[in-house]
Amino acid sequence: MKCPFCGDPSTQVTDTRENEDGDIVRRRRRCVKCDKRFTTYERIDLKMPHIVKRNGTRVEFDRNKLGASMTLALRKRPVALEDIEAAAARIEGKLLAMGEREIPSETVGELVMRELKKLDKVAYVRYASVYRNFEDVHNFSEAIREVSRGRGRPSKSS
């Protein structure tokens, strides 16, 4: 770490402390050359992958957008806000764990559907109807049969 006063690269750490959450480290440093003191902060800098939409455009991952789409599907359903936030956090964690720079939007959609299926079957069907672009009542019936049986995902076409 260079000294911000004289630019010398020789500094010593005199004190190290973590914040209450343990996600930020504060370090007091002293420049060996000019003897001035300064503080640095370390925090984790995780980069979320970019989402590649169906049309090929790339957008930054937006946790607010993820939460909003889940909340919309869960509108007027008996699911606690904490459960929605926990599900969104699990999705975000899975996206980070993939270690990819870009992830197809279909992957995010599938993760959302898995979480919604656990939270509320009605919300799952609501989300699936938009995500899978249901075109007729048969698609809805098929999705309802799938969640009733507790099996995999409904198919895209009739």
TrEMBL record:
Its cofactor is Zn(2+). Residues 49-139 form the ATP-cone domain. It comes from the Bacteria. GO terms for molecular function: ATP binding; DNA binding; zinc ion binding. Keywords: ATP-binding, DNA-binding, Metal-binding, Nucleotide-binding, Repressor, Transcription, Transcription regulation, Zinc, Zinc-finger. A zinc finger (unnamed) spans 3-34. PROSITE patterns: ATP_CONE. HAMAP family: NrdR. Negatively regulates transcription of bacterial ribonucleotide reductase nrd genes and operons by binding to NrdR-boxes. This is Transcriptional repressor NrdR. It comes from Nitrogeniibacter mangrovi. The gene is nrdR.
